[in-house]
Structure to design on (740 residues):
């Protein structure tokens, strides 16, 4: 069904009126990939200073999309100013270590210059890693100084909570150096690539949202540090083909049913002997999360079982390493990891759980005994954004009104009631909450509003703009603003009766009396929803300007819904998702303005996998597809992601067999497929694609391929690479869906 006309009218009415010029000619495709960014100046990595007097953020240079700088805006007013010039600090491109390249790939960082930073707790210093070395900015002196200068990279740098030290990992060991300057000191020794200190293993970075391997105590006296032993992990020879040559990388890559890295945890005092933490008798577990109590007397560890159906919270004595389980979450499907564990000053803590059928917040005592449920209802919390302990309230993001919008809410965890919305409806929000007082920096976007960042009081009142980024005269996208059309949102029913949300965008100058080809943009995998009231990448405008309708549908298995909706795919990935996407395509075919015989599909990663499944489904309604970096056999992907949803090949052979794609290649229509892949991909390795290329060639099936030398799964893609990929896909769809 479609949204009620009144609701759609209200959404349009809420959109600021614009007096743009008459409909201009289409957006030149090359302009999408040139500076300045068509989406306008956006604030990334937004943080509030500890004293609440300023907001800092990272921003792409207007003259170079590949370089980022650090900026600051005073709460009292005045124009934002640059603190650290990324081009000045790193005037030349430096060859980074493989460890740093991997970290950036996992984090999706595609720029250089200032790509990360951190305040000290006193608000006196800002630490910024810049191309392998560390810089410290003195806030009072308004001056930057270089803290390290070495041939090797300093990675995962942090300022200790009290600001006394800067820590970092170099050559697989953990180091500290006084923040004021002085001699560095190694806290660990003997680290190697296979036996490392202080780093997060591949699985933790790629799939567990844990990018660090060490954690400071709040008093600066000790560090909890992980020791990772990869010697038991299988070596997967990975070809890395570059423009000027090729090599084979012996990558330690844990595949389903095979050994993971062993991860141990220690407490390392700055003065004294290292203590090993008791993580239990079973070594084949995941070190999921580590956090210190506010008083530093307890170290909390989240330990996840290999099958991911159990998550234990351990309370550890940092002096002895002794531990005890104080809380356990279980599920017949899987227990998702989150960052919602928040220890409070009085020893209690906040925790999130899906035990009610939706993700909600709970308050627990220091002993792990439940005190009360904080939020409830048939809607899911997205994540805890912050805690205002003085007021006894928790701030959280949630999809409370519907799955395609997110807002920030506040509720008391002492006397819970109906959550209060602190931000407006109609779009999508991301926020950073101050450590004290509840003020927050919020970024809002919707289909006609590029990301806008402002500072807000605890009650949601806007204090000042950080980056208003208004779509008006002077904005990079303004000359093309009249080509934007308000998307239509609605739902269709899945086979089990659950609503599947969809989004449909029509081309500029849309005429409902005509019939248009459609491109379905799919991801479809767990952990990522594509249907949202947000600002879409200007790359989509290339396809819209070319006369295509763009359609998205969030199938079962995607987030922001109930546990039942999310876990419907348990042990049978690639089955219900395809059924739901076909239901969406059948709905498209019922629309009078859709060319029912010319529907294409495209996606990357899980979306590439879905593209291949949708093209080979029985009586497929899809005429052509562009599959990017597709998983083609889940037995070749990594442990934590795959086993969460599929178990192992040994305990779920039928499930794995049903998802394998080589056997489905005879069902690919001649000339209906374009496959793309980066030739240095270390996530969905290139052999996923070579398997289906070989199968199609063996069957004599015509198809098309485009590979990208030296490029990984998501990082390192230059504007030229992205433009080529977009234009290659457009050319393919024009030939297949329009007959050009």
């Amino acid at each position: 069904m479609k949204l009620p006309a009144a609701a759609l009218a209200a959404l349009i009415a809420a959109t600021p009126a614009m007096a743009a010029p008459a409909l201009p000619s289409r957006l030149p495709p090359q302009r999408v990939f040139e500076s300045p960014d068509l989406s306008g100046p956006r604030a990334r990595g937004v943080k509030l200073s500890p004293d609440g007097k300023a907001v800092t953020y990272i921003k792409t240079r207007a003259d170079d999309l590949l370089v980022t700088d650090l900026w600051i805006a005073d709460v009292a007013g005045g124009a934002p100013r640059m603190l650290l010039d990324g081009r000045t600090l790193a005037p030349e491109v430096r060859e980074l270590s493989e460890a740093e390249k991997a970290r950036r790939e996992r984090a999706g960082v595609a720029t250089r210059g200032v790509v990360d930073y951190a305040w000290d707790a006193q608000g006196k210093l800002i630490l910024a890693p810049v191309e392998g070395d560390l810089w410290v900015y003195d806030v009072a002196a308004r001056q930057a100084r270089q803290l390290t200068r070495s041939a090797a990279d300093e990675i995962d740098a942090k300022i200790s909570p009290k600001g006394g030290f800067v820590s970092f990992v170099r050559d697989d060991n953990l180091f500290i150096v006084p923040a004021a300057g002085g001699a560095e000191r190694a806290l660990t020794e003997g680290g190697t690539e296979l036996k490392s200190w202080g780093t997060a293993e591949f699985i933790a970075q790629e799939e567990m949202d844990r990018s660090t391997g060490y954690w400071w105590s709040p008093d600066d006296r000790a560090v909890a540090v992980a020791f990772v032993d990869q010697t038991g992990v299988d070596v997967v020879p990975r070809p890395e083909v570059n423009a000027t040559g090729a090599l084979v990388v012996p990558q330690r890559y844990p595949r389903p049913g095979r050994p993971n890295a062993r991860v141990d945890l220690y407490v390392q005092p700055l003065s004294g002997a290292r203590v090993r933490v008791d993580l239990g008798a079973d070594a084949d577990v995941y070190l999921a999360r580590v956090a210190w109590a506010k008083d530093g007397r307890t170290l909390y560890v989240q330990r996840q079982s290999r099958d991911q159906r159990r998550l234990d919270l351990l309370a550890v004595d940092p002096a002895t390493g002794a531990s005890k389980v104080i809380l356990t979450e279980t599920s017949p499907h899987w227990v998702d990891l989150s960052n919602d564990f928040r220890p409070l000053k009085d020893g209690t803590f906040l925790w999130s759980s899906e035990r009610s059928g939706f993700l909600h917040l709970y308050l627990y005592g220091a002993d792990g005994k439940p005190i009360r449920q904080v939020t409830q209802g048939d809607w899911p919390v997205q994540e805890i954004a912050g805690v205002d302990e003085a007021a006894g309230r928790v701030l959280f993001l949630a999809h409370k009104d519907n799955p395609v919008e997110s807002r920030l809410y506040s509720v008391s965890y002492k006397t819970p009631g109906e959550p209060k919305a602190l931000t407006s409806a109609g779009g999508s929000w991301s926020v950073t909450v101050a450590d004290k007082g509840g003020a927050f920096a919020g970024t809002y976007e919707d289909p006609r509003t590029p990301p806008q960042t402002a500072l807000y009081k605890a009650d949601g009142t806007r204090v000042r703009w950080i980056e208003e980024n208004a779509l008006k005269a002077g904005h990079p996208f303004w000359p093309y603003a009249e080509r934007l059309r308000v998307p239509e949102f609605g739902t269709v029913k899945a086979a089990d009766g659950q609503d599947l949300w969809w989004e449909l965008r029509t081309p500029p100058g849309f005429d409902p009396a005509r019939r248009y080809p459609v491109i379905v943009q799919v991801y479809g995998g767990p952990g990522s929803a594509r249907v949202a009231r947000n600002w879409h990448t200007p790359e989509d405008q290339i396809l819209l300007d070319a006369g295509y309708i763009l359609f998205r549908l969030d199938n079962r298995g995607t987030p922001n819904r109930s546990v039942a909706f999310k876990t419907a795919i348990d042990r049978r990935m690639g089955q219900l998702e395809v059924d739901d996407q076909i239901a969406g395509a059948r709905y498209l075919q019922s629309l009078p303005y859709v060319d029912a015989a010319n529907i294409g599909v495209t996606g990357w990663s899980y979306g590439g996998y879905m593209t291949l499944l949708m093209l080979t489904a029985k009586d497929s309604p899809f005429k052509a597809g562009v599959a990017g970096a597709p998983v083609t056999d889940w037995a070749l992907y990594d442990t934590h992601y795959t086993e969460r949803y599929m178990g192992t090949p040994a305990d779920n052979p039928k499930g794995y067999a049903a998802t394998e794609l080589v056997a489905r290649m005879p069902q690919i229509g001649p000339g209906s497929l374009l496959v793309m892949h980066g030739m240095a991909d270390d996530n969905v390795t290139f052999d996923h694609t070579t398997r289906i290329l070989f199968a199609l060639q063996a069957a004599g099936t015509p198809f098309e391929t485009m590979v990208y030398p030296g490029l990984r799964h998501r990082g390192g893609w230059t504007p030229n690479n992205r433009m080529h990929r977009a234009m290659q896909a457009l050319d393919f769809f024009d030939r297949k869906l329009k007959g050009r």
Remarks:
- The chain is about 15% helix and 35% strand.
- Confidence is low (pLDDT under 50) at residues 1-21.
